[in-house]
Description:
The protein has 2 helices and 3 strands. With 62 residues, the chain is an alpha+beta fold.
Amino acid sequence: MAELERLATFPSRGARPRDERLRKAGYRYVVRGQYLIFYKVLRSYVRVYRVLHGRRMYRDLL
Length: 62
């Protein structure tokens, strides 16, 4: 939960995905342990789309 609070305060701290389709769609992600938190920075808030285990094929799930 603390990681989500940090995203609200520092939304641009996450990395942009290597996958071009996800990058163009505006996704960012942060790593928390074995999990990837995918989100987008919208006008005045951060929207979390998925929290996935790092071994998942995330490109097919977003």
